[in-house]
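OP here, attaching both records as promised.
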Amino acid sequence: MKTFAELNEREILAVAISSEEEDARIYMSFAEDLAERYPASSKVFEEMADEEKAHRHQLLDMYEQRFGPNLPPIRREDVKGFLKRRPVWLSKNLSLDTIRKEAENMEFQAQRFYQRAAEQTRDVNIRKLLGDLAEVEKTHAGMAGKLERAHLTESARDEENATRHRMFLLQYVQPGLAGLMDGSVSTLAPLFAAAFATQNNWQTFLVGLAASIGAGISMGFAEALSDDGSLTGRGSPWLRGVISGAMTTLGGIFHTLPYLVPDSWPNAFWIATGIAGLIVAIELWIIAWIRATYMDTPFLQAAFQVVVGGVIVLAAGILIGGA
């Protein structure tokens, strides 16, 4: 690999041409990814891709005038320390904010490249073109703002905000809620069965801890492997898996922690069980509130569904443990 300082003017132009071509393709990938979810923002990235194509033609014209029609086979990957592009465009259903931040980073890196390249070249015309392109890249954030104002009308913004809210529900709230419900409810039976069978806080804590971690791992893998997000728009499967698994574990851990009350305390078992029961009630209320707030379920209906299910599982654990 060459260092940037070792590039001659011909190689600098060749790298710039290939970079503009690749950036145009990246912006078109963003536009395609956003087309169904955010059509107005998709149009913004299409026009930014057209800008990059125009830059490429300017650079090609300069190159042909100075060096002829043959481009040397050099890309930015062949230059040590050159600006890098994270292959985020390979992921589908990226959030709009992630794409916009990546575009801002791309423009900043391109500006820095043209500034350094202009400083390094001695040809007046090439130096002027590279300096002009550096200024263009510097103002691209403003251009993106103008394009957004042109395409993102009030109705388009409302539509995109609704889509962003829906994606937030699909990618974060839904797997988190599913995990919290599973962790809070499914661990009740083994925890309280162990509690009433042994009436030993430490042993009960170990059972609850094992049940919580095991349920978290199981739910995490189940969520990650259930849907790759390419068709449903639910985002990264592994991110959803981590969210679901973590919330499942937390849901079980909270009502397990009271059994850390030392067995040496008077009435230690009943103190721990009373606190655990109170925490279970709080957990079920929180789940009902989340369902009512984010999933458009009437609160009383959500509370009834969650409480009835939790009470049945809790009763099953107590009956089995006390048998």
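Record two, same layout:
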Amino acid sequence: MVNNDITATSEVRFGEMTAMYNSSTADRAANTVSGSRVFLYEVVGLRQNEEADNLSYPIRQSGSVFIRVPYSRMNQEMQRVARLGGKIVSIRPLNGGSEVNGKAMLTTAGSNVNASTAPSEELKSKKLEEKPMTQAKAKSDIPVNIYRPNAPFVGRCISNEELVREGGIGTCRHLKFDLSGSELRYLEGQSIGIIPPGTDKNGKPQKLRLYSIASTRHGDDLNDKTVSLCVRQLEYKHPDTGETVYGVCSTHLCNLQPGDEVKITGPTGKEMLLPEDPNINVIMMATGTGIAPFRAYLWRMFKETHEDYKFNGFAWLIFGVATTPNILYKQELEELQQQYPDNFRLTYAISREQKNKEGGRMYIQHRCEELAEDLWNLIEKDNTHTYICGLKGMEGGIDEALSTAASAKGVNWADYQKEIRKAGRWHVETY
């Protein structure tokens, strides 16, 4: 059973990722005609490294990364990606050499990534720079890697607010950063990278950590000049010494004071984007800080006024937490439910306070089992998008609940899930 309690060891967002997968040799083509050809692999789902896999807490998987591979090493790189749990989603030929479109390959939290991501992405970013953020809607206009690890934007902390109320577990902060003077723009469902100060245990500069953005493209101040994050401080016991260990980047962020500088990269990510169609239905299932992208969705749907977007569909958030004080953004969420009862449904799974039908703790998978019929009736509509963000272990329970509901209608859930995933209506970002 998966515990969705918000403990310091289980609620790790992108932020506590460690650097991994150094394939510098993949850039050296063999001295043959075929070996001099270079290909660009787009890879998703990479784990971090063997050391991270053995930790007692989950480390989030990476999003899409781009790896240059010479012809002579294609099989080896495919095997390496498979060993790291990754999946190659596309392969495209390049012209070879040590650069692509004049951009050097560089290491980020995930792999050796092309500084321009891909030739088409650089063109997309250039197009975005010529238009206001409010028009960045189509997938062809997704902003990616405007700021890269070797040249981050240095912003400043505007505010740092505690989200866990008295009696709750741990600390979780809502941070707002000033983007004035930058070209950074982003969409709901994307992430940014944060580079903490200092060096790692090997004396090398700290690698970036990725965090899901918790604000809409216009920012909390609605002026297109801020970005917000929801960050829980990582805290766990060292398995050998029993010493309390604090996450490098999450601790850095949680301790920021207004005016402090912060190094920002990105944005990245396409898996969790919210469609621009205002008539869709949206199911959101989150544990802990997995609420971050869903806060952005809901604020765009209900709290902002747009000339070109007015949400007319139905949104349902199922939110798993440990205790009532750990319900992040509780007041705002419940106000939305009261103001928009016909368009927004809010359901909690509070593990340490509520009981499932067996009398045990209520986790999000149990709540989905109770509500499986309602969920299925909504999921089978052609205009429904389902998003899951948080602890990876909840996926199995959700699948089991929906499988039962689908079977009652004569549908095989596994096959149906593949169909809606292929159609772009099933979105998962878990760790």
